Amino acid sequence: MSGRALKQVGFVGIGNMGWPMAANLVGAGFEVTVTDVAPGRTEAFVAQVGGRAAATSAEAAAGADALVTILPTSKHVEDVISQVKGVLSEGALVIEMSSGVPAVTQALATELAAVGVALIDCPVSGGVARARTGEIAIMAGGDGEQIDRARPLLTAMGKTIHHCGSTGAGQAMKALNNLVSAGGFLIGVEALLIGQQFGLDPAQMVDVLNASSGMNDSTRRKLKEFVLSRRFDSGFGLDLMVKDLSIALEIGRDSHTPAPFAALCRELWASAASLLGPGQDHTAAARLSERLAQTELTAGTPAQEGRT
Description:
By secondary structure, this protein is of the alpha/beta class. Helix content is 52%, strand content 13%.
């Protein structure tokens, strides 16, 4: 393991996922300084959780052994790195936990290495509920010694840590994970719509799928909780899902891998975003399929009699 121990942590981005992740670091005994662009959010975090509030990313980075970034896009991360590059001390570690573009992250790692700062990418999966309990999955890319160095922080936030390869590999894996998740969600919604039109109860269908080979993360954690309930409030934005699917397709294009189903999946999600407008939860994408079927999913739909 190389570099100094990581005790002082700057944390940039305390949104839906970042807040509980930073809270888990505070709970684990790390000295955490948080910052966020949303007015009053850092002060609210300190009042409710603890730690210190910083007005800027540079202030959060000052004196930090590690700087955690979890932001909407790689462009936001680039802006933060430009602000903190001259502030982070030699030997510090940047833990980039956004669902970003691998090529951009690789370039940032090279840029930081020139000033003696290491960067690893560690995007996460599991949603807000598992972020609160510290049970998210972490996909890591970068130097193995630096990932081991970060392990105490990562294990405070997540249940499993997977070293996927060199810098950018974690983000590539995250985008591809979300591609599989997005496909499973849409096919699940379509299956429920078909079943409901036939006369099956969508809620019972979910139970059967979860006891059968059709089970996936959406049948287990999303279809009842956020679609059939009509809550559509999982905490992960529809625009972010489209962004991640676009990254997955870009990786496919760069590797010259034909991916027609992935392309169709991305277009359906983009169509849902266009139909529903900004600010939607990703589970609201079910409404696109409902619009096409000209019906709405309703739990408790009675089965039609006489079907065999």
